[in-house]
Amino acid sequence: MNAPKAAATGNLAKTPVPELLVYALDRSLEGTLVLEETDGKKSAIYFQNGAPAKVKTADPVAYLGQVLVEQGSITQEVYQRTLSKVSGTRQLFGEVLLAEQALKNHDLLEGLREQIIQKVSHLFKLPGATVFGFYSATDFLARWGGPPTRVKPLPLLWRGLRLFTDDVKVDTLIARIGERQLKLYMDAPIGRFKLTPQERGVVDVIRGRPTTLSVLFKSGLGHEGLVKRVVYALALTRQLDFGVPGVEPVGLEEAPSSARLPVYDPGAAGERTSRPSFSHRSIVPSQADSPPVPISQPVSRPSPSARTLSLPPPSPVLSAEHQALQAEIERRAAAEGEDYYQVLGLPRDTPSSAIQAAFFQLAKVWHPDRLPTELAHLRDLSTKVFARMSEAHQLLSEATRRKEYDQLLAQGAGSAEEQEQVAKVMRAVGAFQRAEVLLKRRDLAGAEREALDAMNGDPEQAEYKALYAWVCAQSPRENYDDLVSLLDQALKLEPNNQRALWYRGQLHVRLGNSARAIRDFKTLLEVNPKHLDAQREVRLHEMRRSVPKEEKGLLGKWFKR
């Protein structure tokens, strides 16, 4: 038979080991990841349900006996004595310890897990030129070592990042985050990372209140490098909520690690046959009819232009189940005229409590990451469908917005065009509300993004134009002419809009156009005589006008803005 073909290939410069671990956990991969260095040396990780369960490194790393001594499970004397018995035999070191009752099954399990963590962490140091191939549903390490021992992936990932962080990767991601608000997902499984108290302090600040990197750097919780590593790990595993619909933290549905090892039966020792050794020059597959991957057949090296995992194209022959799913994805992606209730498959009188439950059930099927490999070419359509579901869930879960939406539906908005217009209007409402909240939190980047979405979604709303102009005015700029023009447009739509009048007056003050500013403030007071800020501005203006010229020097300082 031909050698197994890799389902995904790449190099560590584009997709480093931490990202490969996240990729595997995110998709609950089963199979073997083979890593080949430029000199031909190979290492391999066997994954069970998305987590490493067995590791073979090209160079010896973390001997089990040494790990057990470090953990206090055995003494140095026991290690040396049992090690001499293993030499020259086919027995596993753990088997010998169990047979002599020098070690308990539970302690052996913990030692094996720690050994895997240390081996995988060692692979974090492999050079970027190292290439990899992932062989799905293939266990190249089945005849090497003992049974698979699945480890908890999140603490493993954090251990590796703590020891061998790629500073360039970290700084690149930190630069992309900038001053965006850092906010944890409500259900982020942070406890599984096994953070130190100092690292937990950084997370607790973010959990207590959304904050920015600059605030964390000044908090005194730890040196800047530690804060960066923690934020990098949280972002890499999607524990941070950046407002992207449909995104879930990695590890949210993590499978449990192996509960126990098979108990060794000394009476069956004589029945054990010799097992083939694992050569540094080959990786032995589990299937008897599948050939090994020898050094003469290196892992396929990606082209220089490859950016990340190179997934194979979908098979031209799909199963009946996949054909049906493909047809349903294409149908839903084309169904622009469905209202939000139809998108979720719910009647309009569905109680609020059932809407969230229905969405979670749909997410298990329609989340883009649940898409079978055979249908990977439909990911864009799947993403479109799921985004529509998320949109429906968000709107129908809020009582006020749902009531407004129901009123629009009751008024006869039933055609495809009308439904799309309704959807745009409701999206704009939500974006406007989010922009106001973000502006109060001083998240200017987020507020600007949401305000722009609101304005583009419903350009006839004076409030949306006014808010967008004011958010943009909060960032340093050389002039405000374009923002004044935008506020002019808002006031053409709604001449008595209080928000637009107040904002335009403020910008005229910054531009030194005091006459225009006072005109806006006075117009605002005609619309709303109780507007306190406008009253103050007009009063200050009148006080300045009443000061004699010879007194303006001193009082001018008092009233200078």
Structural class: mainly alpha
What profile does the largest beta sheet have? 5 strands, antiparallel
Portion in beta strands: 5-15%
Q: What does the radius of gyration come to? A: 31 Å
Order of helices and strands: EHEEEHHHHEHHHHHEEHHHHHHHHHHHHH
What's the overall average pLDDT, rounded? 78
Question: Topology, pairings included?
Answer:
Layout (H helix, E strand, L loop, with lengths): L7 E4 L5 H10 L4 E6 L5 E7 L2 E6 L7 H7 L5 H11 L6 H7 L5 H19 L7 E6 L16 H11 L3 H11 L19 H12 L4 H6 L5 H13 L45 E2 L9 E2 L25 H15 L5 H5 L7 H15 L12 H18 L2 H12 L5 H25 L3 H14 L4 H12 L7 H13 L4 H14 L2 H14 L4 H15 L5 H8 L2
Antiparallel strand pairs: 1-5, 2-3, 2-5, 3-4, 6-7
Helix pairs in contact: 1-6, 5-6, 7-10, 11-14, 13-14, 15-16, 16-17, 17-18, 18-19, 18-20, 19-20, 20-21, 21-22
Description:
The structure is a single chain. This protein is mainly alpha-helical. The protein has 4 domains: 8-154, no CATH class; 165-236, no CATH class; 335-414, DnaJ domain (Helix Hairpins); 459-559, Serine Threonine Protein Phosphatase 5, Tetratricopeptide repeat (Alpha Horseshoe). Helix content is 51%, strand content 6%. The chain has 23 helices and 7 strands. The protein has helices at residues 17-26, 64-70, 76-86, 93-99, 105-123, 153-163, 167-177, 197-208, 213-218, 224-236, 320-334, 340-344, 352-366, 379-396, 399-410, 416-440, 444-457, 462-473, 481-493, 498-511, 514-527, 532-546, 552-559, and strands at residues 8-11, 31-36, 42-48, 51-56, 131-136, 282-283, 293-294. The strands form 2 sheets. A 5-stranded antiparallel β-sheet has the order 1-5-2-3-4. Strands 6-7 form a two-stranded antiparallel sheet. The radius of gyration is 31 Å and the shape is elongated. The protein starts with 7 loop residues before the first strand and ends with a helix. The model is unreliable at 258-297, 303-316 and 551-561 (pLDDT under 50).
